[in-house]
Amino acid sequence: MRLLKATGVTLLVLAVALVWTFLPQRLDFEAMSAELLPPANPPAEMHLSLLQTGRMHSQALFAYRGGSPFDARDFSMGGILVQHPRGDLLFDTGFGRHVVDHAETLPPLMKLTTRYSVGTPIADQFSAHGYQAAQLAGIVLTHAHWDHISGIPDLPGVPVWLDTAEQLFIGGDKPMAQLAHSLLPLPIRTYGFDEKPYLGFARSFDVWGDGSIVLVPAGGHTPGSIIAFLNLPSGKRLALIGDIAWQTEAIGIPAERPWVSRMLVDDDAGAVREQLRHLAAIHQRFPEIQMVPAHDARVAAGLPQFPETMR
Ligand SMILES: [Zn+2]
User: How confident is the model at residue 173 (pLDDT cuts 50, 70, 90)?
Assistant: First the structure.
């Protein structure tokens, strides 16, 4: 009887602890007052489109601490095409033609909790509108998780741009790198970062040298995760933040993913927390930079859907 009571108390304590991990908890962060908006001289011909390839069905509960279990969220899955006179780049590829097979490579608990619906793969959207994938100078990955790389095999021969940290991740045997690992060898183009600070990041890579596309290392969700700052000729500025935050509230509040989500998807949850603090500071100082999480369907709906574009 005493044992039964002790077990009951232990279970109750564990249940309370688990519930606590979902409750609101705002991250504190330091303001970045002295920073100036980095200069950019994008060519007038530069333009951008979003390509949606499917949805994942979840709740705000799992996206950020304080999110409601009754707030259903469809996570958008896709990529962003940036056409630039120096070379077109596709940021992430979303769900590809073989996404059903690709989902089979997920760790068991992820597979069990992942519900998704499939749309039109990027390669098929390209051919439907006469866009030649051979025009692409590269596929730039925010990170190499399955839902960002599933479309890569549909675009054979297009170089996949990766920093060395993400290449090490793909080369290893971590469960979340399994799909990327299985796609090797890929036509990888390695890039590095210059010792040039950008919006508080110590290093950056100005892809075409005009400040229009600037990549910064932002490891945590995966070791080689990056953020892509896109500065358009209209003056509009976007930050493709990958999966550092799944929904914009995570930056606005700011709040990290609840423990169970962090445990499932983040390589280094402490580093993701620091990235969120940094993004919150950028968002506060420069609200004109639109934060674009890879999976916030509300943000995706506000961007031009391929073949529509914006400059
Ligand atoms: Zn993702």
Answer: very high
Task: Decide: 145 and 176 in contact? Cβ < 8 Å.
Answer: yes
In the reported structure, the alpha carbon of residue 147 is separated from the centroid of ligand 1 by a whole-number distance in angstroms of 5
Q: How far is the CA of 180 from the centre of ligand 1 (A)?
A: 13
In angstroms, what is the span from residue 6 Cα to ligand 1's centroid? Answer: 41
For 103-118, write each residue's pLDDT tens digit: 999 988 888 888 999 9
Query: Tokens standing for 141?
Result: 């990955």
- CA dihedral of residues 112, 123, 306, 289 (deg, nearest 10): 60
DSSP state of 306: T
Listing DSSP states for 60-104 in one string gives HHHHSTT--TTSEEEEEEEEEEEE-TT-EEEE---S-TTHHHHHT
If you measure from the C-alpha of residue 117 to the centroid of ligand 1, how many angstroms do you get, rounded to a whole number? Answer: 14
Hey, what are 79's tokens?
């990529």
Q: How far is the CA of 22 from the centre of ligand 1 (A)?
A: 20
Domains detected in the chain: 40-301 (3.60.15.10)
pLDDT in tens, 117-157: 999 999 999 999 999 999 999 999 999 999 999 999 999 99
243 alpha carbon to ligand 1 midpoint, in Å?
5
Q: Under DSSP, is residue 22 helix (H, G, I), strand (E, B) or coil? A: coil
How far is ligand 1, taken at its centre, from the CA of residue 242, in Å?
Answer: 7
For 68, phi then psi, to 5°, come to -90, 145
Measured in angstroms, how far is the CA atom of residue 19 from the centroid of ligand 1? 24
- How confident is residue 254, by pLDDT bands cut at 50, 70 and 90? very high
Dist. CA 308 → ligand 1 center (Å): 24
